[in-house]
Amino acid sequence: MKGARPLSNDEILRVSLEFSGTYSVRNRSLFMLGVSVGGRISELLALTIGDVYQNGQPVKDLLFAKDVVKGKENARMVPVNADGRKAIRDLIDWHRGQYGTLEKERPLFVSRKHLRKVGESSRFCAALSRSQAHRVLEDAFEKAGLNGKLATHTLRKTFAQRCYDQSGDIFQVKELLGHRSVETTKAYIGISYAKLQRTAEAIEVVNYNRTPLLLHSTLTEVPTDTLVIELQRRGYDTSSTITQMQSERAFLSPVLHDEKIIPLERARSAHMTRLRRGQG
Questions:
Q1: What pLDDT does 35 receive?
Q2: Could you tell me which residues come within 8 angstroms of residue 86 by beta carbon, excluding any fewer than 6 positions away?
Q3: What does the pLDDT average to over 258-269?
Q4: Which of 112, 192, 214, 279 has CA atoms 20 to 30 A from the CA of 4?
Q5: Assigned CATH for 9-196
Q6: What pLDDT, in 10s, does the model give residues 156-213?
Q7: pLDDT at 50 exceeding the cut of 80
Q8: Rounded Cα gap, residues 167 and 164, in angstroms
Q9: What span, in angstroms and rounded, lies between the C-alpha atoms of 159 and 276?
Q10: pTM of the shown model
C-alpha cells in the first residue's frame, strides 16, 4: 500500500507478541518472515514448504521467482537471517502438528477456509489470501497499540528501511528489493521515521529558555558543568548524576565554589557569561 510506514525494532517486538489462537504460529511467522526478507505480500503467500525448508533445515537464501513478482521488479535471492530462519522453523513444526506430514508443494501460509483432500491420506490447504493476511496483520497492529498508515506492505517497507539504516547503501537495498532502478528505491524507502521524530523533538519549544544550543563535535569537548546545565535546560533529571559525582570526587569547574555545587541559577549565569565571551 502506497504510503504505508515502516516499523521500528521496538514495534516489531510489540506486534510479534500479539498473535494468538490456533493459527498464531502461522500469523507470527508471516509477520516475522516478512520483516526479515522483504517480500511483497503476494510473494510471501506464494511460498511453499519446499521453497523455505530443504534438506531438513530452513534455507539460508530465499528465491523469489519472477513469475510472482509485481510490476517491473526482478527475481532475486535474499539471505534469510536468524529471525527469518526461526520463523520458518516454527512454522514447519506447526505444519507437522497440524497435518502430520510435510509436503513440498503445500502452501507455507495455509488458509483454514480452503481445506481439501488430495489422495487418500494427505490433507492440503490453499494459501492464505491477501485480504485474509491484511486482516491478520491489521488486528495485530491494533492490539500492539500502533498508529499511522499500516498495512501488509509495512512488512516490506520495514525490511527496506532497516537494511538502509544498517548499511547506508541504497544500491544494496535496491538488490535486496529486486528493483530495476535505484530511483524506485529512493522513492520507496524515503526518510527514516526515527530520524524525522528526532528532528521534530530537536525543535520543540517546551523547554526553551532563550539559551543558545551547544555546538560541539564531541562530548569530550564540553566542560562537565556545562554539559550538566545543558541537560537540565533540556528537561533531563541530572540529580542522580550530580550526587554520584559528588560522592566520587569534587565537582570542580569554573562555576563552582569550595568544591561544592553552587545553586543552579548562579551556574546558569556563569554559563551564559562564558557563552557571551565565546568560551562555551
A1: 97
A2: 32
A3: 49
A4: 112
A5: 1.10.443.10
A6: 999 999 999 898 898 999 999 998 888 888 877 766 666 767 778 777 776 555 455 5
A7: yes
A8: 5
A9: 48
A10: 0.66
Which three three-digit cell numbers place residue 96? 507437522
Residue linked to cell 516499523: 7
Q: What string of DSSP letters covers 15-81? A: HHT---STTHHHHHHHHHHHHHH---HHHHHT-BHHHHEETTEE-SEEEE-GGG--TTPPPEEEE--
Residue with the three cell numbers 510490476: 71
What distances in angstroms separate CA 260 from CA 18, 244, 271, one per listed residue?
A: 52, 13, 16
Q: What is the pLDDT of residue 116?
A: 54
> Whose grid coordinates read 566520587?
248
Sign of the dihedral defined by the CA atoms of residues 266, 267, 271, 277, in that order? positive
Q: In sequence order, which ranges of 205-238 are alpha helices (DSSP H)?
A: 224-233
Cell 520507496 belongs to which residue? 188
Q: Where in the chain is the domain with CATH 1.10.443.10?
A: 9-196
* Separation between Cα atoms, residue 225 and residue 267, nearest integer Å: 8
